[in-house]
């Protein structure tokens, strides 16, 4: 059987490649999945597509060229190995997948079992991949010392920043969102977040002072992954407050770091990383949270419509138009936000 997959061989290049799927070689602890949708992760994937991530040039790196992009998928199980007990043919699963028509994952009782969960009933399958951005966003809440009523500033209202804003609001936070895109600001309003600053039209620092009555915020979150944002937002964090790096810093940035360090030192401000990959895949003794627990929580919020996500899918494309989607996410940020790849071909 033939399958199709996306390859990024070098900067700004995309190939739709045919590959062979050897169904008769599926191992006893594996399942074969036919993808229904995969979803582009703009931050991670575009940093690799554009060569911004320096590790693309390191042969031993996880993201070196040629690269198979993607890590979000929803698909149907079409073949099951003999040792697999918790999946059967026709099951719909949410799992980690490259952008490809088919995937083979380990699902038996094995130490290197792939991550997957069965999709609960009552959820539009087009919305399921958003779960991954929800769990990424949720990490900022999980690692924080947040309490209901805390004032939280979130810089960057893309998919992750939007969902982080909603999650902190659901948890009882006084949320302030900052972005330079009017479209993203409007989407945030549709989700019920009222305190918003369009940094392309207003001086965001002055507006933030107004919103906080010159008191600052308890928690400041960089949902972009820009070092400059971390440095600049630090001055607005209260004593014993937190700065959370939800985005991954990739671009080099030169500055005098003393002002940031003085803020951390003199005001007891804590800087925390919020990389989702630090969670175990499944529940583990001594660890409160996992991918599984976080994913099921986000899926419940989506099913119960507590998270407003329908408007976050802006494009559904066929795989042959994949490069157009990448370029749109880079150059047309007011048009492109959430892009699904439809593998029903």
- The rounded Rg comes to 21 Å
CATH architecture designation of the largest domain: Alpha-Beta Complex
Structural class: alpha/beta
Query: What is the fold named in CATH at topology level of the largest domain?
Result: Quinone Oxidoreductase, Chain A, domain 1
Specify the CATH homologous superfamily of the largest domain: Medium-chain alcohol dehydrogenases, catalytic domain
What is the number of helices?
Answer: 9
User: Which consecutive residue ranges, at least 5 long each, have pLDDT under 50?
Assistant: none
Q: How many domains, as an integer?
A: 2
* Overall geometry: globular
Please identify the top-level CATH class of the largest domain.
Alpha Beta
Per DSSP, what share of the residues sits in E-state strands of 2 or more residues? Answer: 15-25%
- Helicity range: 25-40%
